[in-house]
Amino acid sequence: MTTSDAHAELRLPTVAVKAGRPEVQPDQPLNEPLVMASTYVAGGAVEYGRYGNPTWAAFETALGALEGGRAVSFASGMAAISTILDLVAPGETVVAARHCYQGALVQLASLEQRGLIKVVLVDIDDTDQVLAALNDDVALLWIESPTNPALEVADLPVLCAAAREAGVTSVVDNTFATPVVQRPLDLGADVVVHSATKYLAGHSDAVIGAVVTRRDDIWRAVDEKRRTMGALPGTLEAWLALRGLRTLHLRVERAQSNAQELVRRVAQHRAVDRVRYPGFGGIVALEIAGGAGAADLVSASTRLWVHATSLGGVESSLERRRRWTSEPLTIPEGLVRLSVGIEDVDDLWSDLQQALDAVPG
Ligand code: PLP
Questions:
Q1: Does residue 345 share a domain with residue 206?
Q2: What are the tens digits of pLDDT across the range 186-232?
Q3: pTM > 0.90
Q4: Does residue 308 share a domain with residue 197?
């Protein structure tokens, strides 16, 4: 079963634990095994390793059930994003969040430079601005909410309804929120994309991505792109991501409660000019007083928090985002993104506090 129907009446923690398992029969394993195969005996539905794999299918069933749609997994979040952007016809316009993940922005800019599409960037938390951009030339509305790393929140029901009304396909990158916090398909989105590398897999050991949709035309087009372009997920990565999904709700809830407590504590620190936090999820952004130098000092001074890119693992990590030259110039130089993990919050606070104390007063 590849749709979410079998789990429609169950609550999310139960779905996270139960979806995407083999049938319960004597001597069946409880978990879908790691099926390493390039070639299948002819005459079945799969035939070849670029067309399907039982381990990917188990991960897709579970993720589809969690998001309320049908999933196709990919080699990475960027492979999922590139696949959706590849569905835009030449000359059509994509309206996208100005502060969405920089890899998506780089990909959009490259398609525009090659004359394939037009791109209009908007402040995704300014609903009127986004609605005004949805004219007849627009094919796709690219939403990230919260955005990475500015943490702006979009009004998903309003934007997705307006997009549908205008005949525009709406896509939500749900990497930061995860289905534990928000289910964009329920809020009117046509497509969800994930960097499953982050919270879904959750242990900083796998790069994998996914598209989820309820629209059969989009599911078929995306599956076809994967078959032909070949941006396949690794089988081990799909297995690890499915293993990660089993505890997604526990990890996200703990990261969120840690983040909420840290936001309360850090707000008063003299080295912090501004705390950005949407009120939910495990990602916090601190604007450090003193800009890039002070922010680099904070990143270099932690002992428990790991100075690293990426996010959504069980371990807390942090980085100054503008150290990447591709990051938009509208992101402050001194912005440090925190990915709050599931450790003890007092240990996390002590370490962060001593790193912030290192900033000269
Ligand atoms: N979307 C968001 C919000 C991200 O943060 C990232 C990576 O940081 C991606 C997509 C890209 O995913 P991947 O690194 O798995 O290709």
A1: no
A2: 999 999 999 999 999 999 999 999 999 999 999 999 999 999 999 99
A3: yes
A4: no
Domain of 345? Answer: 248-357
Residue 289 has pLDDT above 90, yes or no: yes
Count of the separate structural domains present in the chain: 2
Q: How far is the CA of 174 from the centre of ligand 1 (A)?
A: 10
Q: Does the beta carbon of 284 sit less than 6 angstroms from any atom of ligand 1? A: no
Percent of the chain with pLDDT over 90: 97
Q: Which of 218, 199, 97 is nearest to 155 (CA)?
A: 97
Name the domain boundary from 197, 212, 245: 245
Is 101 inside a domain boundary?
A: no
Asked if residue 9 and residue 21 are part of one domain, the reply reads yes
Q: What percent of the chain has pLDDT over 70?
A: 99
Structure tokens at 216: 């059969």
Query: What is the Å distance from ligand 1's center to 52 Cα?
Result: 23
In the chain, at which residue ranges do the beta strands (DSSP E only) sit? 70-74, 93-97, 118-122, 138-144, 169-173, 191-195, 209-213, 272-276, 283-288, 306-307, 317-320, 335-339
Cβ-based burial of 265 (10 A; exposed 0-12, middle 13-18, buried ≥19): middle
- Among the listed residues 50, 164, 215, 243, the single catalytic one is 50
Which of 151, 171, 174, 198 is the pocket-test mutation for ligand 1 (most atoms within 8 Å of CB)? Answer: 198
pLDDT tens profile 2-46? 445 677 789 999 999 999 999 999 999 999 999 999 999 999 999
